[in-house]
Write a structure and sequence with these properties.
Layout (H helix, E strand, L loop, with lengths): L1 E6 L3 H16 L3 E3 L7 E6 L4 H17 L4 E6 H12 L4 H4 L1 H4 L6 E3 L7 H19 L4 H8 E8 L10 H4 L4 E2 L2 H13 L4 E6 L15 H4 L2 H11 L6 E4 L9 H7 L8 E3 L7 H6 L6 H14 L4 E8 L6 H14 L3 E6 L17 H24 L5 E12 L2 E8 L4 E5 L3 H7 L3 E9 L5 E5 L1
Parallel strand pairs: 1-2, 1-3, 3-4, 4-5, 6-8, 8-9, 10-11, 11-12, 15-17
Antiparallel strand pairs: 6-7, 13-14, 13-16, 14-15, 16-17
Helix pairs in contact: 6-7, 9-11, 15-16
This protein binds iron/sulfur cluster.
């Protein structure tokens, strides 16, 4: 799901919008420019003057024009002031004029006091819309797709203090959701038709630390998370559980042994690397070495068959020399990732890395990032080709047309987009939102593998 943000007014609004973006990204949304066509638009409004009010309305209108079907959200000060105006005039829409008109093109109003619940509110509205579509039987394929996979945030906060990251400063302390609460949400999602849940958190590996007297998440040995996954795995209707980003240090032999015993956990692990150079990792305050990271990858490959190991890498961290960058390029090849997300280092005010000497120029960052992206694409292709001839469980989501032919498409448990010919439309529709075995035979497009239904 794509979400576009726009911030109006003061610095506090800009700061809060950044925080919202992080929350949405953590929950698996793709943040796009406000000008792009998105599924959701969030405008953090301002009301300091009449002109600010007018601009807030104008931008809300623009969001609606960008995509008639999008969810348009008005958040912040103008919501408070418009709400107050409505209250003052006894909620008379006739008298309220432009404020009343807002209801015709805005789907959700989130006042300042409720901004921290924005993600939750948007998720709820999305689910309500999907449920309405299903109940009416008028769902288009896109609607079914939205139903297949859902994200569940189980933890907030982080106390790792990576030197490039602002999150530990802007979020409160570690806070984990009770397992019963998460299981309940998984049950509700299953009832709405969701078949796959993605368990996410700001620092998922710290899940449950606040329930104990442990000082470090490594002391936990991932036990609370394992307990949570076992519980979610028992929810009827949920076919698969995918894990969000994990800190490499949670991957011990004991943890992996237990993890592979939990049914429904997908063999897809996102282990944030950030750099393949030990000196850079130290400057980043990441608490592992590249050799330790490789041991984790090795363990996952011992206990799971051909697991997809995906990662994030930062290009152009302060003081990153050419040699250090080359080490990262070599390392990612050794780790043989199935997919890499490459980010150019971006300065965040208030972090230690922002104050470091030796910032890398934008041009060098761009060159290094392009090179890493190319390496990542090669690795991805190689991993996918290794799946030819194997059997994959695919959760089908939608019917797509490629080259004039209908295909049933979805994601395999290893998160590889896979499509099979949708011969009989009845059979194809029946398989939407269902898991089926596919023997992979080759590539359909750059991004999609193809195969035969077993
Ligand atoms: S682990 Fe590091 S990068 Fe991740 S949220 Fe915590 S401080 Fe930020």
């Amino acid at each position: 799901m794509k979400v576009g943000f726009l911030s109006l007014g003061c610095k506090v609004n800009y700061y809060e919008t950044e925080k919202m973006k992080q929350q949405f990204e953590e929950a698996g949304y793709q943040v796009v420019s406000f000008e792009e066509k998105a599924d959701i638009y969030i405008i953090n409004t301002c009301t300091v003057t009449n002109i600010a009010d007018r601009k807030s309305r104008k931008m809300l209108h623009r969001a609606r024009r960008n995509n008639q079907d999008a969810i348009v959200v008005a958040a912040g000060c103008y919501v408070d002031s418009a709400g107050k105006k409505m209250d003052d005039i006894g909620n008379s829409r006739e008298k309220a004029g432009v404020e009343a008109e807002l209801h015709t093109f805005v789907d959700l109003f989130v006042p300042n006091a409720e901004k921290d619940k924005l993600l939750e509110k948007v998720g709820k509205l999305q689910r309500e819309r999907c449920a309405a579509v299903l109940a009416s039987g008028t769902g288009k394929e896109e609607d079914v797709k939205k139903h297949t996979r859902a994200y569940i945030k189980v933890q907030d906060g982080c106390s790792q203090y990576c030197t490039y990251c602002i999150i530990p400063y802007v979020r409160g302390p570690l806070k984990s959701r009770a397992a019963e609460d998460v299981v309940k949400e998984a049950g509700q999602l299953a009832a709405e038709g969701v078949r796959e849940v993605v368990i996410t958190g700001i620092h998922l590996s710290s899940y449950g630390m606040d329930f104990t007297d442990k000082k470090s998440f490594t002391d936990l040995q991932g036990k609370p998370l394992l307990g949570l996954l076992s519980a979610v795995s028992q929810v009827e209707g949920i076919a698969r559980i995918r894990l969000g980003s994990l800190e490499p240090r949670i991957i011990t032999e004991g943890f992996v042994k237990e993890l592979c015993r939990i049914p429904k956990v997908c063999p897809h692990f996102h282990l944030s690397l950030q750099s393949g150079c030990d000196a850079t990792l130290r400057r980043m305050n990441r608490h592992y070495t590249t050799e330790e990271y490789l041991d984790c990858v090795q363990l996952l490959r011992e206990y799971f068959t051909a697991p997809a190991i995906t990662t994030d890498v930062i290009a152009g961290f302060p003081q990153e020399t050419r040699e250090e960058f080359e080490k990262t390029c070599d390392f990612v090849q050794r780790a043989a990732f199935s997919q890499m997300h490459v980010f150019k280092y971006s300065r965040r005010h208030g972090t230690m890395a922002d104050a470091m000497e030796g910032q890398v120029s934008e041009q060098v960052k761009a060159e290094r990032s392009s090179r890493l992206i190319a390496v990542g694409q090669g690795l991805e292709k190689r991993y996918q080709e290794g799946l030819y001839g194997t059997e994959e469980e695919v959760l089908f989501e939608e019917i797509v047309q490629i080259g004039g032919v209908n295909y049933l498409a979805g994601y395999s448990e290893r998160y590889v987009r896979t499509a099979v010919k949708a011969d009989g439309i009845y059979k194809a529709e029946r398989l939407c939102n269902a898991v089926a075995d596919v023997r992979i035979t080759g590539r359909l497009t750059e991004e999609i593998l193809t195969g035969e239904l077993k």
